[in-house]
Amino acid sequence: MQKKTLSLGKLPELPNNKIDILSAGTWFGDGGAALGIMPKVLWQKLLPTDEYNRLKFDTNVLLIRAPHHNILVDTGFGNRPSDKQKKIYQTSDYTLLQNLQRFDLKPTDINYVILSHLHFDHAGGIISTVQGDSQLTFPNAIHIIQKQEWAMAQNPDQLNLKAYNFKRDLQILEDSENLLLIDGDYQLTEEISLELVGGHSIGLQVVRIAEGDFLAYFGSDIFPLEVHKHLAVTAAVDLCRNTTFTAKQKIWNELQSKQGYLIFSHDLKKKFIQII
Questions:
Q1: What is the dihedral of CA 37, 121, 268, 188, to 10 degrees?
Q2: pLDDT band at residue 46, thresholds of 50, 70 and 90?
Q3: pTM of structure
Q4: With contact defined as beta carbons under 8 Å apart, do 94 and 24 qualify?
Q5: pLDDT tens digits, 9-32
């Protein structure tokens, strides 16, 4: 059956949770790494690359203003990419804090930071450099991370060695006592739950938001771009393609049954779709 989707301009207003998608900045990554087995001839007209075969990605961060809590899902790459990262990824200015100001929010107003996983473009914003000092960007927030992901980031094996490269930042977070490690699925509020799916990384978690008849998933890097709505399209850098596919299929089927919303983590133009 053909997958039907509807693209809208803004997520619905909900009684209890206000959901917005913010950009933390843009970066460039290899097109083949992102699209995996999908041949470039099929995607190059939709996703143009530069002379180095790189696609331009956004870092879409979810802001959820729940009763009594302000919640961020992911942090972007932060304000301190290394010179090597800047050269390779052509990172833009870090724009998350500026975009939070549109909602009259300061970093100290964030109560929870959910890290879908600990790759630099999702977790680099945990720590910021302020007047030469490294400190938590969101000092009042509890940072929620899967135990498996934390362990891998602390001691990456040879396959993951290049994917995790900010151990000192994680030590600052651990020392702050603003860290909550969870093991599997976790209910944060009545409407917001975290689901451990893996696939892209060993401890990748997605965020499920359900309120009344509304259902949405922030799919992180198992659904980074709209083209990944095709379930067999997975990134070449995924640790386990079959695990990614299985997680995508489960999420898609639930969203389709409830005409829910799928939020993409890296798409520049289409931030989400409704599956009908």
A1: 100
A2: confident
A3: 0.95
A4: yes
A5: 789 989 999 999 999 999 999 999
Q: What is the mean pLDDT of the chain?
A: 94
Give the domain range for residue 228. 5-275
Share of the chain above pLDDT 70, in %: 98
What is the distance, to the nearest Å, from the Cα of residue 262 to the centroid of all Cα atoms in its chain?
12
CATH number of the domain that 154 lies in?
3.60.15.10
CA atoms within 13 A of residue 211's CA, in its CB half-sphere: 17
Q: Tell me the pLDDT tens digit for each residue of 50-65.
A: 999 999 999 999 999 9
- Nearest-angstrom CA–CA distance, 72 and 74: 6
Cα radius of gyration rounded to whole Å, the chain: 18
| Number of compact structural domains in the chain | 1
Q: HEC profile for the chain?
A: CCCCEECCCCCCCCCCCEEEEEEEEEEEEEHHHHHCCCCHHHHCCCCCCCCCCEEEEEEEEEEEEECCEEEEECCCCCCCCCHHHHHHHCCCCCCHHHHHHHHCCCHHHCCEEECCCCCHHHHHHHEEEECCEEEECCCCCEEEEEHHHHHHHHCCCCCCCCCCCCHHHHHHHHHHCCEEEECCCEECCCCEEEEECCCCCCCCEEEEEEECCEEEEECHHHCCCHHHHCCCCCCCCCCCHHHHHHHHHHHHHHHHHHCCEEECCCCCCCCEEEEC
b (16+ CB within 10 A) / e for 149-183:
bbebbeebeeeeeebbbbeebbeebeeeebbeebe
Which pLDDT does position 1 carry in this prediction? 44
Spatial separation of the C-alpha atoms in residues 24 and 34, rounded to whole Å: 19
In this structure, are strands 127-130 and 133-136 parallel, antiparallel, or unpaired? Answer: antiparallel
Length of the chain in residues, anyone? 276
